[in-house]
Write a structure and sequence with these properties.
With about 400 residues, this protein is α/β, with parallel strands linked by helices. The protein is about 45% helix and about 15% strand. The chain has 2 domains: about 140 residues, Aspartate Aminotransferase, domain 1 (Alpha-Beta Complex), CATH 3.90.1150; about 230 residues, Aspartate Aminotransferase, domain 2 (3-Layer(aba) Sandwich), CATH 3.40.640. It starts with a helix and ends in a 5-residue tail after the last helix.
Amino acid sequence: MSESSEGRQGAQEAADGIRARRITALRAVRRRVGGNALHAPVGDRLRHLLEHGPDAYDLDQPADLYGDRIVETLEERVAGLLGKEGAVFFPTGTMAQQVALRCWAGRTGNATVALHPLSHPEVHERDALGAVSGLRTVHPTMRPGLPNAQEVRDLGEPFGTLMLELPLREAGFVLPSWQELTEVVAAAREREAVVHFDGARLWESVPHLGHPLDEVAGLADSVYVSFYKSLGGLGGAVLAGPGTLTEEARIWRHRYGGQIFHQFPTVLSALIGLDRELPRLPSYVAHARVVADAIREGFAATGLPWARVHPQVPHTHQFQVWLPYEAEPLEEAALRQAEEDGTCLFWHWTASGAPGTAFTEVTVNAPGLEWTADDVKEAVARFVARLPG
């Protein structure tokens, strides 16, 4: 084995060891501000479906075949929630949005999509819009926030679709105000473009925007929503819009390989999430603001030279925390806190690109509602105590 191969093997073994350590620590954690089933055993996920499934759907009905029965139930429900004529289920949001944007390109005659450079297709999909769907993208703004109306009006070339990610995750789960959102949509209409919402996290955007879900979705020609990011589902997505669009989307779903024989476990988990988690999201958003304030005050009390919560007032139940450290010591401190205290306030830290700084994403949901501001401040102090001096 060559020296370089040995080095790669050693690095992989070290990474595998850290991953196993993290999974063990997460499963043993007693207190966390945000719960998810990322590393939950298969048995736990199955028990969840069996426990709550009967309240969401008649489990004596036959399983779905290629998108009928329980899948149609979910589609109809989401279309109603979003106030759209039609809805179609997809195994992934990446597929759903590629199909939506491809369909709109065919209808508008323009394959150019205007979107933010930090949006999901630009950051996380390996140039799929261009490589797979033959689309090209342009950026109305480079600011770390959604484009405003003037930036859309000033874009120097025609575009067929304006795609808005609500909230914009990579910029800190940020949202525009309702007025700003209506103005940017109107600006796209002035450019004779259609509007598509990347609503992977649209469910929890309602409190900040101050309007019901169907009114928010009603601003756009089409909307994609996810079921696992905030609703606790196993996966899956729905594309909603005009009936003619969603019927065409079903054809493209088949062409893209999304016509799956059985999807009932994923769909059942989505129905459970709509029943159980969707009504709770406003309380998560409200408590995220309490947690964010306490984190800010907690770091100030430790005497750290610089720390930032972004946005200062979270727009959803998720926000960023930035610290003047490299990611590695922050990850180690978080892992030790989970192992030694059984507490998980912070978890994965990411290098920011600016030397000596890193950030993490904080999600507040059901477990976090039990945390008081003093609980958060104490956890911050114990986290900082594990950082290098």
